[in-house]
Amino acid sequence: MSSVLSPSVAYRLEAARAVVSDAARLAMSMRPPSGGPVATQKSAQDWLTETDGAVEAFIAERMKTLFPDDGFQGEEEGVVRAGALRWVVDPIDGTSNYARGRNRWCVSLGLLEGDEPVAGVIEAPALGEVYTALRGHGAFLNGRRIQASSVKDPASAMIEMGWSNRVPKDVFIEKTDAIMGLGAMPRSGGSGALALADVACGRLDGYVEIVINLWDVAAALPLLAEAGACVSPFLKTGGLTGAATILAAAPHIARPLSEAVNIPLE
After folding, report:
1. Architecture of domain 154-261 in CATH?
2. CA distance 149 to 137
3. In this structure, are residues 194 and 106 in contact, taking their beta carbons and an 8 Å threshold?
4. Residues 67-72: what's their mean pLDDT?
5. Angle (CA) 222 53 45, round 5°
6. What is the CATH number of domain 7-145?
7. Which residue from 39, 67, 81, 168 has the fewest beta carbons nearer than 10 Å?
8. pTM as predicted
9. Which residue ranges does the chain devote to CATH 3.40.190.80?
């Protein structure tokens, strides 16, 4: 992986921050009130709101205007443009939370240079939080540098296990049981992007999800790398073109967690 980024990538990150900020305000203006889900159910516990399409279309149009030669991929519309630099957006990550008026959701926009994640922005407007990362230049939460947890004992760790209806129940139970077997405290918050961001800033010591997509993780991968977290080779194991497994963890507990849940780090 090259350690040298062109100035244009740093400029793109600044532009992306502004675009995501505007998109987050749009999402907040459309947020349903607290209560039962205001959404369409695509499949069991897989939700789609009007906001998902509106936010993705907004970001797609803005990025096309700003960077017409860049590629673009969204959760809802797929790959709509190809380019050496490719933006990957999840318009609302944590839709099940968003649809019920809860606060744990975000707008996520990552940038890949070829097959390498180089920059990312994650904004959780209901939480008042903005994560940014630029390869080789650090990871930040609301402008303050972040780093992964220093926890050394898995029995002191807090691990989130992401749920998907594409994972057999017995597999989910097996992995969760393995996490608890380490003595770790299991959690599940409903947003893969924010869980990975939590690993990057030390709020979580690890995150595991058996089936997750590129748009869920594209913005978080630079955060994790810059914050010193250990991450399984998501992109090399199918994540560039389809769903794949991810494990992200604080460096001192990454190996025992990897062995417990049988997800290799290399």
Report:
1. 3-Layer(aba) Sandwich (3.40)
2. 19
3. yes
4. 97
5. 80
6. 3.30.540.10
7. 168
8. 0.93
9. 154-261
